[in-house]
């Protein structure tokens, strides 16, 4: 039973129900604590106060790490207190040690349901169906009603990219708070935007492709490589960027080297092409 309407003592027996299944409906803040841990005793009233203040918008789950060692081990708990926020069945954020109420509120606000969520979902469906104009209109309306929801701006940038408006997408991403620029999702989108801004298209692409076949024109290598990225022909793109780096190292502020790094960001560190071309890039550097 909860010791307050939105606060639960969680054990191995009810973890799946309270935390994993519960987090599919609303965020669950999981506090790993122990009776001997003085910082835990300091943090617990702050968390309880927030649970009451938010009135059920999130659930607070308390796990005694000494008594529930299997759960602590399962989530790699190494110091106390450790607080994890679960959403849709998995941890999506966390902090360790005693934190001020304002910091915890900021973490919660990133993950709590918002009034604009339904509009975002509608816009995402429109974008997936190919209606980028409709998606953009829906997202702009959502942002007008919920100006603090930074995730809407990320969706707007995606819609603008789908419409071929890379410069506007770039300007939109620049308005995001600094911490969001560290998010993998945003970094990949930023990389895609930079390629879109230089990619050749249409007849111009055909002309530059002919120049690439005939020789090592740096502009042609750069802009055709960017076009290959946008068409998801990643191996061809990486090959052209490596060639640009090898033949014209200083071109456009080391566009070949920077383009490779951006492509690696876009594809992710575990992609086999990234591993292959990172080795090739390093061999050119040293």
UniProtKB/TrEMBL annotation:
Gene3D superfamilies: Glutaredoxin (3.40.30.10), Tetratricopeptide repeat domain (1.25.40.10)
Source taxon at top rank: Bacteria
Keyword Ribonucleoprotein: no
Entries under NCBIfam families matching the protein: thioredoxin
CC terms in the record's Gene Ontology section: cytoplasm
Protein name: Thioredoxin
Gene Ontology MF, one: protein-disulfide reductase activity
Transport is among the record's keywords: yes
Stated family: Belongs to the thioredoxin family.
Cleavable signal peptide: none
Sorted UniProt keywords: Disulfide bond, Electron transport, Redox-active center, Transport
GO BP: any one term: response to stress
Residues of the Thioredoxin domain: 1-113
Family annotation (Pfam families): Thioredoxin (PF00085), TPR_19 (PF14559), TPR_20 (PF14561)
């Amino acid at each position: 039973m909860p010791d307050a309407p939105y606060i639960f003592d969680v054990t191995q027996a009810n973890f799946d129900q309270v935390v994993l299944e519960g987090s599919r409906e609303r965020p669950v803040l999981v506090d790993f604590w122990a009776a001997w841990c003085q910082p835990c005793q300091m943090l617990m009233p702050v968390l309880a106060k927030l649970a009451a203040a938010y009135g059920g918008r999130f659930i607070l789950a308390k796990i005694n790490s000494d008594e529930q060692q299997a759960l602590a081990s399962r989530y790699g708990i190494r110091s106390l207190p450790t607080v994890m926020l679960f959403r849709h069945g998995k941890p999506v954020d966390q902090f360790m040690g005693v934190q001020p109420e304002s910091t915890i509120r900021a973490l919660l606000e990133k993950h709590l349901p918002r009034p604009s969520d339904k509009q975002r979902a509608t816009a995402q469906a429109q974008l997936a169906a190919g209606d980028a104009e409709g998606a953009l209109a829906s997202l702009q309306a959502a942002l007008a009603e919920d100006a603090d929801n930074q995730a809407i701006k990320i969706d707007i940038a995606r819609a603008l990219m789908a419409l071929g408006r890379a410069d506007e997408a770039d300007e939109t991403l620049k308005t995001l708070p600094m911490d969001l620029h560290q998010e993998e999702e945003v970094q990949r989108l930023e990389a895609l935007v930079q390629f879109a801004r230089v990619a050749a298209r249409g007849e111009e692409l055909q002309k530059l492709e002919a120049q690439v076949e005939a020789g090592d024109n740096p502009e042609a290598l750069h802009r055709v490589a960017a076009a290959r990225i946008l068409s998801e022909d990643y191996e061809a793109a990486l090959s052209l960027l490596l060639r640009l780096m090898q033949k014209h190292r200083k071109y456009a502020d080391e566009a070949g080297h920077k383009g490779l790094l951006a492509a690696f960001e876009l594809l992710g560190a575990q992609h086999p092409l990234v591993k292959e071309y990172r080795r090739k890039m390093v061999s050119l550097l040293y």
